[in-house]
Amino acid sequence: MMDMSLFTRAKERAAEVGSLGASSFGHVATSLTSSAASLASLGQLQVSNRASNAGAAAKRLVKDLVTTTKSNLIVGTLPTGLVPEQRVDYAIVLPPRHRGSDDDGDPFPLLLTLHGLKGSRDGLIKQHEHGDWDTRFAAGVCPEMVIATISGGDNYFMDFHDKSAMWETFLIEEFLPFVIRSCNCGTTRELRYLMGGSMGGHGALKLAFRHPDKFAAVAAFEPAIDAALEPSHLSRRNHQWAQCAGSGQAGDLITQIWGGVAPEYDSLHYRLHNPASLANDNSASIKEHKLKIYIDVGDQDSLNLHDGVEFLHRVLWDHAIEHEYHLIHGADHVGGSLPARMSAVYTWLGKTLVPIISPPSKDRFELDEEERKYLKWLSGGGAEQGLPKEGRAISLESDKMIALFRGSFSANMRCLLGAPSEGPAYVAGFRWRSGGGRASASGGVVGGGGAAQSGEEAGAGAAGGVGGGVERAAPGGRHLGVLVEGEGIEEEEEEGGFFFGSTGLGVSVAHTHESCAQPKP
User: Fold this and answer.
1) N or C: which terminus of the chain carries fewer CB neighbours within 10 A?
2) How far apart, in whole angstroms, are the C-alpha atoms of residue 56 and residue 431?
3) What is the DSSP code (8-state) at residue 333?
4) Which letter does DSSP use for residue 175 in this model?
5) What is the dihedral of CA 514, 516, 517, 518, to 10 degrees?
6) CATH for 67-357, among 3.10.20.30, 3.90.1150.10, 3.40.50.1820, 1.10.10.10?
7) How large is the C-alpha radius of gyration of the chain?
8) Alpha carbon distance 139, 141 (integer Å)
9) What is the mean pLDDT of residues 25-46?
């Protein structure tokens, strides 16, 4: 059934345009039924757009005119039985090339963005009104995509311990499918991305680490995460511990969410919803799906969030999970550092999404005939002998130079170096690439991260059956980043890695360092 109130509002708006003498928009009145029906098919949404006059606003209601140089904004409310309010407000930005409900072309990428504490969908609405996303699209910072968000309260986008609110379930099972279905976007994993700041950074990382099969990339700036794998690891520096200490109301909400006040959280629930724990316990799946990860924090964050972000970085590093990490010197949780940091986030998002959406060809590493001539002239001593240059030089900033540089390594040099993402389990007694294992009494590495499921029933495996996990150090040892007191730590077998030959991409074989030829004394 068509939303008649929406139809009435659109009709009144058209009348306002007529009263302003905007005769060129007279066809709006005859198009109201199809426009309202089009909007109703998007879940009875109200569409608005930044406009310099009433005529431009009314024009946006006509579905055959949605292809403009500006994005369009959709705001609405989705009914749900998963939160106490029984409804969730949302906002969606459609990029300029998107044709609304009539868009039947190639699906657009979808960015699900989550707000921070005290935030709401209004953040995205204001970005749209300021033209922020249009500027990014026009400048090529990001490819055109659909951006969606909700008003999630101050609930960390969590499924509450007491089940009174199920925000994560709402996002994954109701909101995400609704946006995909309604806006011709995010139809495959390669087209779905997450972003969030502060509280929203916690939510984005949690969703990505639990569901690496559903999302291709996640960007979290100054995420509100803990430097812990278990509640017992929390210290008084923890932001939620400090927050609850002076507020009974805050403590009540935290108890609903976590099953207690820090550090007396429910351990199983915590392990299933804490981003660092999920990264540790679900590391195999995160690596298998090649999830792209970006994290940022200031080293003077007043909430001590740099503790949690640095800890997450070390967990990811220990598991050899590739990621980009920015620790901003002198930066706080708010202040003048934010614009440059946010610009870096969007730049990363754009450079990361493009090759995911359209993977580059390996031919970009191939040298053409002129470049081969130059390489032959250079390697033959032409420069030293003062011979006329032949061919075309290879740019130091090109991917071909990566191929040339790596291809210049001897086989034994490659054998000794290994792949860039490899490394020993320990360096100078510090855990390095141990895979979440722990040092045994004999100095070897035992266990590693296991896989965490999304349901509560997986908790026993996540909390107790992960083969030790990062938090379980050897007798006499300490946790991640602290010296392990023991001798005779053996290097594990290194896996094979990629190398680039002078003409293209190659693959090295699996090896141990002991199998490589060692330098003579």
Assistant:
1) C
2) 61
3) S
4) I
5) -50
6) 3.40.50.1820
7) 27
8) 5
9) 35
333 with 222: CB under 8 angstroms?
yes
494 touches 475 (CB < 8 A): no
Residue 72, number of CB atoms within 10 A of its CB: 21
pLDDT per residue over 477-486, tens digit each?
A: 333 443 333 3
More reliable by pLDDT, 437 or 473? 437
CB 379 within 8 A of CB 367: no
The pTM assigned to this predicted structure is 0.74
Cis omega (within 30 of 0) on the bond before 388?
Answer: no
- List the structure tokens of 366: 């191939």
The 10s digit of each residue's pLDDT in 328-351 is 999 999 999 999 999 999 999 999
Q: What are the beta bridge partners of residue 427? A: 430
What sign does the CA torsion over 318, 323, 327, 332 have? Answer: negative
Average pLDDT, the chain: 76
The answer to whether residues 298 and 332 touch, using CB atoms and an 8 Å cutoff, is yes
Measure Cα distances from 11 to 3, 5, 16, 34, 327 in Å.
13, 10, 9, 12, 53
Question: Under a CB-based contact definition with an 8 Å cutoff, are residues 412 and 520 in contact?
Answer: no
Q: How buried is 28 (Cβ within 10 angstroms: 0-12 exposed, 13-18 middle, 19+ buried)?
A: buried
Residues 421, 422, 425: CA angle, nearest 5 degrees: 130
Domain ranges of the chain: 1-65, 67-357, 365-421+495-515, 424-492
- Which percentage of the chain shows pLDDT scores above 90? 49
Place of tokens 């066809």: 27
Tokens encoding 60: 């946006």
The pair of three-digit structure tokens given for residue 223, joined into one six-digit string: 């995420």
Angle at the Cα of 313 from the Cα atoms of 453 and 326, rounded to 5 degrees: 130
Hunting for tokens 């090649």 — which residue is that? 290
For 197, the 3-state DSSP assignment is strand
Q: 133-140, long-range: CB within 8 Å, 24+ apart, which pairs? A: 133/71, 133/93, 133/95, 134/69, 134/70, 134/71, 134/96, 136/346, 136/350, 137/71, 137/95, 137/96, 138/69, 140/350
Q: Is the peptide bond before 263 cis (omega within 30 degrees of 0)?
A: yes
